Amino acid sequence: MNIKILGPGCARCQQLEKTVKEVVKELGIEATVEEVKDIKKFLDYYVMMTPGLVINEQVVSSGKVPAKAEVTQLIINAMAKEEQKKGA
């Protein structure tokens, strides 16, 4: 699983990154968590408000710091999509 945090490195971006790493650890999954600070890259994902959360190249949140429970659900949903692709 590939997870990207889109943002300039502000406090909100750092909080989202911390939350994502906690959730990944708690779920016991393998995931790459990457900070993307290049504003031009934000535009590749059509993210105009940061922080942005991208899981497996899908933007799942932008412009807010989702609660830990929401981040957990977003990651679980992405894992389910991965499983569907493998089974298809």
Descriptive keywords:
single chain, 88 residues, alpha+beta, Glutaredoxin, four-stranded mixed β-sheet, 4 strands, 49% helix, globular
Structure, explained:
The chain is α+β, with helices and mostly antiparallel strands. The chain has a single domain, classed as 3-Layer(aba) Sandwich (Glutaredoxin), CATH 3.40.30.10. 49% of the residues lie in helices and 22% in strands. It has three helices and four strands. The mean pLDDT is 94.
Summarize this structure briefly.
The protein has 88 residues and is an alpha+beta fold. The protein is 49% helix and 22% strand. It has one domain (2-87): Glutaredoxin (3-Layer(aba) Sandwich), CATH 3.40.30.10.
Number of DSSP helical runs: 3
What does the overall shape look like? globular
Structural class: alpha+beta
**CATH structural architecture:** 3-Layer(aba) Sandwich
Could you name the CATH homologous superfamily? Glutaredoxin
Strand order of the largest sheet: 2-1-3-4
- CATH class division: Alpha Beta
Note poorly predicted spans.
none
**CATH fold type:** Glutaredoxin
Largest sheet: 4 strands, mixed
> Roughly how much helix do the residues carry, as a percent range?
40-55%
Terminal residue distance = 18 Å
Radius of gyration: 12 Å
How many strands?
4
Write down the domain tally. 1
Q: Percent of residues in beta strands?
A: 15-25%
SSE series: EHEHEEH
Mean pLDDT, to the nearest integer, reads 94
